[in-house]
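TEACHING EXERCISE
Course module: macromolecular assemblies
Task: Read the component lines below, then compare them to the predicted structure of the full complex.
Student: A.B.
Group: 4
Components provided:
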Amino acid sequence: MSLDLTLKDWSTYRQTHPRPDSHPDLKWAMAIDLDACTGCNACVVACYAENNLPVVGKEKFAAGQQMHWIRVERYWNDGDENSPEQGAQFLPMMCQQCEAAPCETVCPVGATNHTPDGLNSQVYNRCIGSRYCSANCPYKVRYFNWYNYPEQVKAWPDPLPMQLNPDLTVRTKGVMEKCTFCVQRLTDAKNTARNEGRNVHDGDVMTACQQACPTGAITFGNLSDPHSLVAQKWRLQRVELSKDKQLKDVDGSHPGLRGYRIFEDLRPYPSVMYLERVRDTQA
Amino acid sequence: MTIKRILGLFNDFEQASAALHELREANLPHLDWNDVTIKSPIEHPDVESVLGVRSIPVRNYTLAGAILGGSLGFLGIATAQGNFFSQLKGGKPIIPLPPDFVLTYEMLILGGVYITVLGFLICAGLPHRSKRDLYNAAVSEDQIGVMVKSNAHCIVEVRKILENHQALSIQEEVVL
Amino acid sequence: MNSVTQGKERDIREDIAWAQINRDVLASLEQPRATYWALFALAFCMFLVGVGCEWYQYNTGLGVSNMNNPDMWGLYIATFIFWIGMSHSGTLLSAILHIIHADWRKPIYRFAEAMTTFSLMTAGLFVAVHLGRVWQIYYALPYPNERWVWPNFQSPLLWDAMAIFTYLSSSILFLYVGAIPDFAICRDHATGWRKNFYTALSLGWMGTDRQWRNFRVAYLVIACFLIPLAVSVHSIVASDFAMSQQPGWHITSFPPYFVAGALYSGCAAIITLFIMLRHTFRFEEYMTMPILDKTARLTFAIAMVWTYLNLIEYATVWYGADEVAKETLLQRATGPYAVYWWSMNFLGSVVPFALIFKKIRANLTAMMILSLLLNLGMWLERWMIVTPTFSHGYYPWTWNHTFFPSLVQWGIVFGSFGWFGMLFMLFCKLVPSVSMYEVKEMVFHRKLARIEAREA
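Instructor-supplied answer key:
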């Protein structure tokens, strides 16, 4: 707590983010191939199991008080009945771990912040439940504990508590939660790597949704590692983290590009790239 | 010489003002005009001007309070943002100037108002133990009081002047 | 500025004896009409309803309010803004009209200032009610702790906390300091426990020129501070919405729009309380019909400012390029909340035109009903800002949710009016609700002006 430290911090901390060199070593990112996604919801179930998510029941789900950190959204295209899917489209949507997350600035107590490895963190202990973060989220991927699921609603009647993941907490009422890219697994992988004196290798850690996906639609890894699969996919699609308009959308000069990020023009700089469905327009 | 206090009550500001003017013209030798006080149910700047120019230091307190509030606010907030658990939020700088400006503005007003109230209490001499001073409840109702503190000889002269201007009642007491 | 009206009804009778002023106002502290007790009992019952609902919600979880993803905010935030808005009337009357020397404010500003203080206290309740973990609300305060964690100063909600704290404490100080001479009057006429109470509160005020001199300057200085403070407080509350990205909220005209709405609902509330106090405490001599007339005209002027800013908001969205914002606006007009939205526009923009008619301004029943309707319009406005944006935000997956508040939410909103009423009634019994010394000043200066006019 000194004047020197304050002045040094002042110049260091007056810079905005994201910049291309924001995360030189480790930046977790994801790529989801919508052409491979069948909408089977295995990722959703895996997420429930891995992250101690309460099943809220039919009534509360219909009322909009569901707790699924990753949700498979269904959209119906009216003109597409002749295609094999009969007009259905699926989009798995989870927290996009935005580099300039709109939720982080508005939490009154600072319960959500940006970690050095590029995740948007949610600190359950600090959250007082003002829900401003969710109000500001363009994707509405933040979920609030409307009830006390473990103790009052009894979301895990015996013997289900034995199935809970001991690596993370069970949240009480009044706390905001969201997808963390399975941060408990990431921390474990980073610890192992540090103990062995190396960096995290690609493939060392998988998120629960990635692990469960039967078609391998989800790719996850370190975007700052140029050899990782997810970095290769981003590079192939010419998608860059700190740009707000990618080559695919600038003009029609690259029709083969499929990679895009959702709501890029709002400039949250999300860390999840989606690969467009391949459509047979000539059939 | 014993020091005495005298309080004369008048019906309205004109009579009180006339009494004060006569007191001025009388030019009593041992009368210190700082010991002349007007007690009234409402303020009257014109009548007060008869007493001479008296300073109102409250505004200095206000300035000091505003500057103190604003600078403490900014320093506190900027230091906290830079040093306490400084984490990136939303792609903004860790010490962002727009939010800091808003809060500095609020703290400036907070400091200004609090220190003004403090200054008012100090300059007006409140809280004041009224038992130590001559007071008549009629002053809070509708009568104007003129209070003079001086030696006993002067007080006799003052009494004559007050009676000349139809004082409704006169109280005297010895100051211990 | 003395407005001497010749031949017309005057704001106050210039030949009221000052002793009479004392007597009338002090009588209000001791013998109000029976209506007072009825109102107090009603307010208390309403408050109990609110307490019951909050108890249930506190123990069960916020889900009982019917809020969901994406409708994360509901009536609590809307009513919070409504109460903060209502608090601006006191500042308008006390501070702004004081600076421009409009002395017709003198008989009515004391209860308006009290309204400010209690509105802010009621708004503070909603901050607590709306939180998921109320018991940890102190996390929002910058206090020393072992983890070296302070709140996030970037958040507009935190600016709210600081601004409202500043406004509440400054209002209380302003109200108290302005009432010191009146407490001295009460002290001089009280007996028993009241005498001790008022003696403590009046700080030994004796009306000396030294005290008046400093009082005058301090009062003016605090009034000058309160005006930018009031504007900034409601602008900060508006920035809760304007600083977010959501369609229908991210509008630069929100801060002045909110401040105009605040002044509007505050003025309407002043009219309501004016009529209630005039009857309950027999203040017909002081809260006169010409003063009500002026307040009504002021309300109309502010209603027109609000209407303009409201229409400009729609126009800028309509002519803008943000497609989602346009859809949100259309949804407000044609979607599930259309009834409330159209009511808000009607009550807020069309109904104030009734204030043009002198006959209506002079009719107490009509003014009472009108002021309540105008405030209903303003409450609806706050709700129509909050909920429709949630139900039609950027993300298409969220679009099939329609949110209506549950009985628990309505109960707590209802209870807040009871809490406010209770505090206000208590205030009127303990503190003179008409400022005696200022009314004496008003009578004195008008009498002087009348004499000068006659001699001229």
